[in-house]
Structures are given as structure tokens and as C-alpha cells.
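User: Can you recover a sequence for this backbone? Please restate the input before giving your answer.

Assistant: Of course. Working from this structure:
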């Protein structure tokens, strides 16, 4: 029973931390909403006041992407899959924050720490067209080939020509590594 008591204590601690996170973000302390909050601050994205607009999490506010819509994801691991929007209109971009690369496998005995080790920016229409051309379904857990991920990387290595990060943006992202 000691393990159950310890588990209950840890859950109480986690709940207290989640309250503090929600005070900062104004949204539930879940990986997705926290990823949206982090991305909004780092990439100057305006998030809507309501978090229930289908497929679009916000709009870039400045730079070459100013005004473009974006769907933001944060995955604890980069397993080569991406949840793609299936309803029109598609967002202009997918901004994907990920933890370390890893193969999809059983979660038994595994942890999924909330780490940010890489960021990818995909053109949503180009990615959807490439997926369809490959005969791959567009939707939840769509398998995206390695070379697409490599071409879309904007942090820590800049591989994409869509956006260049400032030193301050790189510093802020590194806080979550």
C-alpha cells in the first residue's frame, strides 16, 4: 500500500503544479495547450480567445509569415507521425515542437518527458499534397517520411527557408530542452 500512498502524494503535487501552469497560460496544463502558449510567445503568434476553431490555432503576427494561419503541435517524442487537419480550410502551416526522436513502441515502463529538442515548420498544403501523392491517408497519426521532417526543421538546425530564428528565439526554445 505504500506505493499507492506515494502515488497519491505525487498526484497531489502534480495537481498543484498544473494549477500554477494554468495561471501562466490561461489554458489546461496539457502538452497541446502549453505548446500553443510557448509557440505563441516565441514565434509571435496570436491565439484566438476561444480554443475551439477547427484546424487553426492562431496567426503569425510579423515577419515573412505575418497573417498566415498555423496549427501548432507539441509531441513529447518525434515518432515520424503528425496529426494533419482534414477539414477545409487547411491552416497555412504546421508548427511542430518535438522532444527527442524515437520509434513508436509500447509505452509500458516508458516516460515521455515534456522536452523541446526540435521545431519543424511545414507548409500545410504542400504536405497534404505530398501525402496524397504517396497514397497515404491525411488525418490523425499520418506517417511523414524522414526527409520531410529534415526539410522542415527550423530548430536547432535551420533547414527550411520559410523562417529564420533570432538568437532570442533560439534561447527561449532552449529553455524547454
Amino acid at each position: 500500500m505504500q506505493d499507492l500512498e506515494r502515488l497519491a502524494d505525487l498526484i497531489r503535487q502534480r495537481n498543484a503544479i498544473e494549477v500554477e501552469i494554468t495561471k501562466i497560460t490561461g489554458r489546461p496544463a496539457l502538452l497541446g495547450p502549453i505548446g500553443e502558449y510557448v509557440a505563441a510567445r516565441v514565434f509571435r503568434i496570436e491565439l484566438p480567445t476561444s480554443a475551439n476553431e477547427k484546424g487553426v490555432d492562431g496567426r503569425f503576427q510579423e515577419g515573412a509569415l505575418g497573417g498566415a494561419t498555423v496549427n501548432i503541435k507539441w509531441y513529447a517524442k518525434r515518432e515520424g507521425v503528425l496529426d494533419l487537419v482534414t477539414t477545409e480550410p487547411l491552416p497555412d502551416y504546421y508548427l511542430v515542437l518535438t522532444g527527442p526522436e524515437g520509434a513508436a513502441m509500447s509505452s509500458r515502463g516508458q516516460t515521455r518527458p515534456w522536452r523541446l529538442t526540435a521545431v519543424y515548420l511545414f507548409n500545410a498544403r504542400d504536405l497534404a499534397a505530398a501525402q496524397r501523392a504517396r497514397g497515404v491517408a491525411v488525418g490523425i497519426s499520418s506517417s511523414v517520411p524522414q526527409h520531410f521532417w529534415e526539410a522542415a526543421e527550423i530548430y536547432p538546425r535551420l533547414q527550411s527557408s520559410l523562417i529564420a530564428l533570432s538568437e532570442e528565439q533560439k534561447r527561449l526554445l532552449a529553455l524547454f530542452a
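That completes the design. Residues 29-174 form a domain with the PvuII Endonuclease; Chain A fold (CATH 3.40.210).
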